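User: Write out your own:

AI:
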Amino acid sequence: MTVHECWLICALDSFGLHDKKNGRAGRMQMVFHIGVHGTDGDRLLKTLLNNRDWLLGNGTEVVSPARHRGLFDEAIMALKGGAATPEMQQIMLDAMLDSAAPQRVVMSSPLLLGSAGRAVGREGLYPQIGARVSALANLFPQTQAEFFVAIRNPAVLLSKLLPQMGCSYEAMMQGCAVRDLRWRDTIRRLVSAAQGRRVVVWCHEDVPMIWPELLRLAGDMPPEAPLSGALLYMQELLGEAGMARLRAALAGRDQITIAQRRRICAAVLADHILPDALDEDIALPGWTQQTVDHVTDAYRADVAEIAVLPGVEFVMP
């Protein structure tokens, strides 16, 4: 069985980046890129770290998971759903940060949601996401928390996670029916728990087209800021020959708009994409092609709902 990972939404909209004049200045901003598992693979973290000099010079620090993983888990257990005191917050910041007083702190790891074993529960995808988001926000209640999350076709997601988890398919599913693998319910739980905090959502299938915008949103980088690694996902899809064609098409276009860049990328992909680059094999016990198609159709329907859900900032290609 296979599923074709195409871009779910074809409109080439001009995506408006925010700036600190739009009400985001003031309190320290804590950005939690919470995954999900089986999507980013640390690419956002590593790419932002490659832009560390510009980010630090403009008040943004990117924190490696090694500096917060155990720290956060211990704090969440100790707080038991409560909010950290100012003293506790300062202890965590002192342990995490290199710079003295950044305006924005970016953390990126699917382990912010816990282990991959939490991806599926009897109620569906990430049933504990609300409790986890609330706990993360309570670590730094005096800051301005933001949550960034990618979603993915559940058929592909489960196929990626099952080999990593080292358990049976039945153990992974925990009694969840295939019909309940719905992202709309998960994102509603997230938004409810965020309580008005910023929630940014995108489809992993769309990342090759929206990657520079995601980096700039997470790092609060304006369009004119230099950005290293903006074509990372395109390189994975095109290979060396295709990338040479893409770079030639983009050369000399310093003032290119987002929509123009995406049109050029789409045109080059149409002619130079590596064979089977977007095809994913689905090997899940008991699943048929009909099952894959049903889950994919439900996913597309969920994306349409999530894109207009109040409280969600949806990044469209």
